[in-house]
Amino acid sequence: MWGRLKACDRDTCLWAYWDASRNQARRWCSMAGCGSVIKTRRARRKAKDGDTGGHPSVRG
After folding, report:
1. Which residues have C-beta within 8 Å of that of residue 18, sequence separation ≥ 6?
2. Which pTM was predicted?
3. HSE-CB of 40 using CA atoms within 13 angstroms
4. What is the pLDDT of residue 54?
5. How many CB atoms lie within 10 A of CB 25?
6. Which of 43, 14, 40 is nearest to 29 (CA)?
7. How far apart are CA 6 and CA 12, in angstroms?
8. Could you report the per-residue pLDDT of 13-46, keeping only the tens digit for each?
9. pLDDT for residue 23
10. DSSP codes joined into one string, 1-54
């Protein structure tokens, strides 16, 4: 039961949340806030590095 109580993965967020997802894989307190910030940073970093995610049809 307590395994569903988690801390947000964003470094600067101090929120805790209840993970009600089926596979308990939720990582952020909210997708609109923390999840969006983290995913945007990751995408920008990949674009800057020219990472295509291993997909051969995408050229960087």
Report:
1. 4, 5, 6
2. 0.62
3. 8
4. 61
5. 7
6. 14
7. 15
8. 999 999 999 998 999 999 898 999 989 999 999 9
9. 92
10. -GGGEEE-SSTT---EEE--STTS---SS-IIIIIHHHHHHHHHHHHHHT--TT
